[in-house]
Write a structure and sequence with these properties.
Helix content is about 15%, strand content about 35%. The chain contains 1 helix and 9 strands, in the order βββαββββββ.
């Protein structure tokens, strides 16, 4: 990883991060058996350098927690629902309602839009809408995705 990750300090300044296999192992006073493999994590904010290390198992748990938090942040409802025409739907848009319905794809065929939805339970189906039909979204992804 590098400073282009979008990770910032509390003041919004970029923080370069380097992750390496074989990071520094904690030193123990007694020189026992060979240390377990480690992952090195180095953060270099403007105020100094932080160096951490962890086992591969701990790195996987951290990655899983980061992924869970990212999905939770992306799935958090915006301040209020957004209504768009069916022809403007994008992959990842989430429909307003009691159950999660996420756009997998949207294909326009003349004045009809064929939208493939995926439920929170993993089921998929396709529905046809008039291109100008109003669809209310709980969450709208940015254009760049």
């Amino acid at each position: 990883m590098s400073s282009g990750t979008g990770i910032t300090d509390a003041d919004g300044r970029p923080v370069p991060i380097t992750v390496t296999a074989g990071g520094p192992a904690p030193t123990a006073p007694d020189a026992g058996p060979a240390p377990a493999p480690r992952i090195g994590i180095r953060l270099t904010p403007p105020g100094g350098e932080l160096v951490w290390s962890c086992t591969p198992e701990a790195a996987r748990r951290l990655a899983a927690e980061l992924l869970r938090a990212a999905e939770e942040a992306e799935n958090a409802p915006a301040g209020r629902p957004v209504t768009v025409g069916a022809g403007e739907l994008r992959r990842g848009d989430v429909r307003e309602g009691d159950r999660a319905m996420t756009v997998e794809s949207a294909r326009t065929d003349g004045s009809t839009v064929h939208v493939t939805w995926r439920s929170g339970a993993g089921r998929s189906w396709t529905q046809a809408y008039a291109a100008d039909a109003a669809i209310t979204l709980k969450r709208r992804l940015p254009e760049c995705r």
